[in-house]
Design a protein that fits this description.
Layout (H helix, E strand, L loop, with lengths): L1 E2 L10 E14 L2 H13 L4 H24 L4 E13 L2 E13 L1
Parallel strand pairs: 1-3
Antiparallel strand pairs: 2-4, 3-4
Length: about 100
C-alpha cells in the first residue's frame, strides 16, 4: 500500500475509489496525567503525551489502510491528519485520504 500526502503518484494513472479514514481516541492513565501536569510547571517536552500521540497516529493510519484495502485500493493519496481534545488527557486522532486504484 502506497501512502502519500500529494494528490498524485508519479508515473501512475489513478482511479479514485473514495474517502477512507481511520481514527482512535487515546488517553494516559491518571498517574501519567499527574506527572505530566507537574512537568508543565517547569516546562519541557511532555514525552508521555508525545508517545501517546505518535501511537494514536500510527493506529489511525493502520485503520485507514485497512479500510482502503477493504475496497481494493492500491494506494491512499492526499493523506491528512487531524486531532482534537475530547477531555483533559484524551485526544482523538483521525487519518483520512482518498483511496485509489492503479489503472
Amino acid at each position: 500500500m502506497i501512502l502519500v500526502n500529494t494528490d498524485y503518484i508519479t508515473g501512475k494513472e489513478l482511479e479514485m475509489l473514495g474517502l477512507v479514514k481511520g481514527s482512535t481516541i487515546q488517553s494516559k492513565n491518571i498517574g501519567r496525567d499527574i506527572t505530566q501536569g507537574f512537568k508543565t510547571l517547569v516546562g519541557g517536552e511532555l514525552k508521555a503525551y508525545n508517545e501517546m500521540m505518535n501511537d494514536a497516529r500510527a493506529l489511525a493510519t493502520k485503520r485507514m489502510v485497512e479500510e482502503a484495502e477493504g475496497i481494493g485500493a492500491d494506494a491512499v493519496v492526499n493523506i491528512r491528519y487531524a486531532s482534537s481534545a475530547i477531555m483533559q488527557g484524551a485526544a482523538e486522532v483521525i487519518a483520512y485520504g482518498t483511496a485509489v486504484k492503479f489503472r
